[in-house]
Prior knowledge:
The complex is a heterodimer of chains A (about 160) and B (about 500). By secondary structure, chain A is mainly α. Chain A has 2 domains: about 1-15 and about 85-160, no CATH class; about 20-75. Chain A is built from 6 helices and no strands. Chain A starts with a helix and ends in an 11-residue tail after the last helix. In chain B, about 70% of the residues lie in helices and about 0% in strands. A two-stranded antiparallel ribbon of chain B has the order 1-2. Chains A and B meet through helix 2, helix 3, helix 4, helix 5 and helix 6 of A and helix 8, helix 9, helix 18, helix 19 and helix 20 of B.
Amino acid sequence: MRDLLLRLRRSEDAARPPHAWLGALGGAALLILAVIFIVGGYELGFGSTRRLGTGAFPVITGFALAVLSLAVIAGDLADKTDLEKPDWISFAAIGGALVVFALTVGRIGLVPGVFLTTITASLPDPALKFPGKVLLGAIVALGCWGLFIEVINLPFKPFMGL
Amino acid sequence: MDIITGFSQGLMVAMQPENLLYCFVGVFLGTFIGVLPGIGSMAAISMLLPLTFYLDPTAAIVMIAGVYYGAEYGGSIASILMNIPGTPSSSITCIDGYPMAREGRAGIALFTSAIASFGGGIIGMVVMAVLAPALATLALNFGPTEYFAVILLGLVAASAVSNGSPVKGVAMVAAGLMLGTVGVDITTGAERFTMGIPEMRDGVHLVIVAMGLFGVGELITSIRANATGAHQNDIDYKKFYPTRAEWKSMFGPIWRGAGIGSFFGALPGTGQTVASAVAYAVEKKVSPNRANFGKGAVEGVAVPESANNSATQTAFIPTLTLGVPGSASMALVIGALMMYGIVPGPRLLVDHADLFWGLVASFLIGNILLLILNIPMIGLWVRLLRIPYKYMYPTIIVLICMGVYSLNNNVFDIWLTLAFGWAGYLMKLFRFEPAPFLIGFVLGPMMEEQLRRAMLLSRGDPTTFLTRPISGTLIVITVLLLAWSIRSALKARRQGRAMPMLSDE
Lengths: 162, 505
């Protein structure tokens, strides 16, 4: 696992940084969002200029965003520079940690949920070996139990379904 | 209420044991976060927001403010010792702070930074105590038309004068405004863009947006940057006390830095980074020691630190008196106040005078606490810099999860945080600033409400925004600001250089 991560990290480091024109994809996403709000806003009703309806503000901001996103697309397509190198390993691991937390905390309880979340989050750093990740997970899980359940008295169950 | 009476009353509020405790917690956590490169005060404030629900509003705001200005103190430590700015505004401190450290004068640089931060903070506090009531009195005459224009100006200023493309900044504001409309419309009761999901009826929670964009998004960015392990330094920081000549040389820059910082802090959209950059540039022109700037000049550390701390205090002026945040951190302050049902604006100084003056007085106490934390306890923060990041970031992600989950005990909030976290990272990757998005999100509902009222009062005449003198002037300033920022961006692009980094959290 550690070797795989190191290989992935090395190949990510060696890869060419993405072109800035890819930022136009962000502009396109904003344009889609704008269209959704314009259409949704019209369906909700614009009202009159005196009494603005529920959909008026989303339509107005939607039109503003549509124009701006076209300008963003045009600007980014003309950009010849490179973006920063992305860190997809950390992107996936941190996202994975949140997924693990969401899937476990209500099913197996806070302590095992936090334990697994910590291990998942620590995956992208090969400097911390697996026993170290497990130890860190145990310390953080026990710390959360002590702090959130015993001290702050939040209504979380430390263990469930075990 | 006059300033002296107000401040005395505020001191009594701030000296209450609960407020003192939370002031200490805030400045301690702020320094802690500021020292760590990569994790900004925004992430810290976002993580603390769920905790503040259990506190009295004054204690909550005192603590959030403590994190905000504590991070400015802490940010200079990493700048001086490692040449890595803990916060964006401390990047200017690196220019002279790090060379001082390399010359074996790290202790003196840290001492200068603490004293200048204290001086700037206190001057900023005095400016806030004097100006905020005056501005609030003026704003009492504002109607919905003027409020709409002020909010529009604040939004454009916060997005146009930011890091990178102003067009992208304004687009992010518009996207934030749209997200603010999700949920039940408070005027008509109709559901908007909830996709039939019951959890979306109350809209998206501010904590989720802030934690996702700034907590998760920043954390992903920081992992690779901090992957080298513990930050080691072999710098001698034990020789602390400046010579008599160094004391004399820092006095003028502290005053000038505080003056410039107070001005820029009060302007929406500029903030601490612009304040410290401008103050440094001015000092470089006027200082008799200008030849040594960039080589380890005491003045080069004193002036940006004084400027960014005074700006941190005066940033509260438009936030509290007009309800217009100049930065994303101030947007969170507004969000926190609104969660307590307190509407920021000119009435805040009348209806919640204890909160306002308690906050002002807490600045004095917080700055004294920071002086104690930053001079005798500097060794603690230096040791903190040696903790490997591989132990810290998994713990931080767990704290983010816990903070979000504790809002409603609902995993749906975690899924939303994941979506905003990934979106925040992609925004940064594709050079979209998340801060204007958050400001738009916070101000969106207010802006919509003022627009509706203004249109109702003007009987549907949209020219009311231009024909009323105050709102007309503000709209013209907004258009000019937008035009200026677009022109500057085009000019910078033609010259083949990036826009200067101006954004603050």
